[in-house]
Design goal:
Blueprint (H helix, E strand, L loop, with lengths): L1 H19 L9 H4 L1 E10 L2 H6 L6 E7 L5 E9 L2 E11 L5 E4 L4 E8 L4 E8 L6 E8 L6 H10 L10 E3 L12
Antiparallel strand pairs: 1-2, 1-8, 1-9, 2-3, 3-4, 4-5, 5-6, 6-7, 7-8
Length: about 180
């Protein structure tokens, strides 16, 4: 039992250290980053995601920033033949591009973006029951180039995830009319 607990503690320490070493987009320009994004690919070790990933479709993320510099994200997801909206607020953590969940124990990092075509987000959920990591590929258009997808896939193992945790989300126009 003691060995299992020490292994768990070591695994959690590794996760926390990995989270601290996640690269961030230098000098994130929030004005350029704000706007509409398509969630086109996700890799995550979250058990709920892994059960649902094969039935998921591309969703929308509408990003804005508060006057205080916090990141607000409205997600519009096609779930069970209807569109579900979720609103998340991430507080600025002191470094541009790094944010902390306002209500949940969640960290969000904008790892890389060119502002006009793609962004890669890294998210860690600090749950006592099941901590999880996610890597998301956001694109301004639903079409994603093979080169960009390859670049995203090469990032997956560097974040402690595996290819079987990847979902390349099929295009969906189901919820684009619900964006506001």
């Amino acid at each position: 039992m003691a060995a299992a607990l020490s292994n768990l503690a070591l695994a959690l320490l590794c996760l926390l250290q990995a989270g601290a070493q996640v690269p961030v987009q230098p000098d994130l320009d929030t004005e350029k980053f704000a706007g509409d994004w398509h969630v086109t690919a996700i890799a995550s070790n979250c058990s709920i995601f892994l059960k649902m990933k094969d039935g998921m479709k591309s969703s929308m993320a509408i990003v804005s920033f508060t006057p205080e510099g916090d990141l607000a994200m409205k997600l519009v997801l096609p779930l069970m033949d209807k569109c579900q909206e979720f609103e998340l607020l991430f507080q600025q953590s002191g470094q541009a591009g790094r944010y902390m969940g306002a209500q949940e124990k969640r960290n969000l990092c904008v790892m890389e973006t060119d502002y006009s075509h793609y962004a890669v987000l890294h998210e860690v959920q600090h749950s006592e029951a099941e901590p999880s990591t996610a890597l998301q590929l956001l694109t301004r258009e639903q079409d994603v180039s093979p080169q960009l997808l390859q670049k995203f896939m090469e990032l997956i193992p560097t974040m402690g995830l595996t290819q079987d945790m990847l979902a390349i989300l099929p295009k969906s126009d189901q919820c684009t009319r619900d964006m506001s």
